[in-house]
Amino acid sequence: MTTHGESTSVPQLPNGAGAAALFSAGFGVFVLSVLAIIGDQSAAFKKLMIFYLPTGPLSGVTTIAVAAWIVSWVGLDLLWRRSDSKGWAIMAGIALLAIGFVLMIPPVGDLF
């Protein structure tokens, strides 16, 4: 217990794991939106993305996007978990999330 006037020191934790999670989430959303746009525009790519016939190309698009998200999260977490000051990665992850969400809006995605 501390008395009045004494300060306690809170240990500073590294933010690399959090930066890896945010960046990889943005990357996964961006990959999902780009693959969905390509699948809508290219008949050959659409056919290539059919992993499960009843769901059509959505099965391949989501499978690849989830795989990209998980691989990037695990890889970046292993690289960054003990490091600090990944502010650029956090901002890039937020930007990728925003761009990916905007690309999923049908009028925007149909522009490509």
UniProtKB/TrEMBL annotation:
The keyword Membrane applies. It comes from the Bacteria. Keywords: Membrane, Transmembrane, Transmembrane helix. The chain crosses the membrane at residues 20-38, 50-76, 88-109. This is Uncharacterized protein.
